[in-house]
Description:
This protein has three domains: 23-97, Dna Ligase, domain 1; 104-199, no CATH class; 202-339, no CATH class. The chain has 13 helices and six strands. The protein has helices at 2-20, 43-52, 59-69, 88-97, 115-124, 130-137, 185-199, 202-210, 215-228, 232-247, 255-262, 298-305, 329-339, and strands at 33-37, 78-82, 104-108, 176-180, 314-317, 323-326.
Amino acid sequence: MKAFLVTILIALVFGGFVFLQGDRPVSRAAETKLFVVSKGQGARDIASALADAKLIRSKNYFLYLVWRHGDQDKFKIGSFELSPSMTSAEIEKELAHDQPISNEREVTVLEGWTLDDIAEYLEKENVASKKAFFAETGESAKFVQTGTLPDWAASYPLLTSKPASASLEGYLFPDTYRIYVGGDAKALVRRMLQNFEMKFTPAMRQEAAVQKRTIHQVVTMASVIEREVRGDEDRAMVSDVFWKRVDSGRGLEADSTVNYITGHSTPSVSYLDTKIDNPWNTYKYKGLPAGPIGNPSLSALLAALHPKANPYWYFLTDKQGNVHYAKTLDEQIANKAKYLR
């Protein structure tokens, strides 16, 4: 009898463990699937359809969540974008409380925007509050985040080289997104990270590995290039200038990194600003800044990966947007006198 009771107890513990595993995502795959809830479908029908689509691990756990939340009659009819990287709880909440994507709108995140720029835009457009957005992404220009950010790296492998305490600055791909009205910040951040994973192709990842650079280093460099020059040709040239400086142990001396600290957008920063003690100040600190200074475009990412070899160590951009290169500091000083008067 004692052995029988022990067997029953072990079975219950094991069953409970398996049941609790039901909330884990099916996989870390970042892709989304269109899931349709049709008229007349009940919770059991929806749970079966989710399991068949390999979006949840356990129908019974999903039904338990429905019962616990009292959502039996709250499922919305329509189409939803779901991901196997979502937990069962996230999927249950979205189907029962969020709006189908049929009620869509567009949001456009511009190339080079910082997290602050995106947060202000989303709040102005009544998409999400700054607080809700920063809760998912962390805040820009911060070494250590307050609170704990979601473990996005568990679903998006390109985030693995990013320091755990760093924000998502640099990884939210600039693009136009269709989102459903009433959606939350998490859903949009997920879409942007999925887009980044797709745009940063396996070939690009391989190129970074060949060059022995981490994804975080490439993204950081691309974010600086994005802010410094326009045009694919100049970006490739400037990429070579900057990487030479990094590899030789020099500072980038990029005005854009100082502007990231001050919030200004001046083409030539002041002498006092170059003395600011901040890890993003590439006049004061050697090598790359502490992290990305914005969210770069595909053009800037490609430039960071494919620099065009040239003999220059300096450059500047004039008021018309033309880039002037110099081999020596004396040539750079002469260019400043000529083009930045």
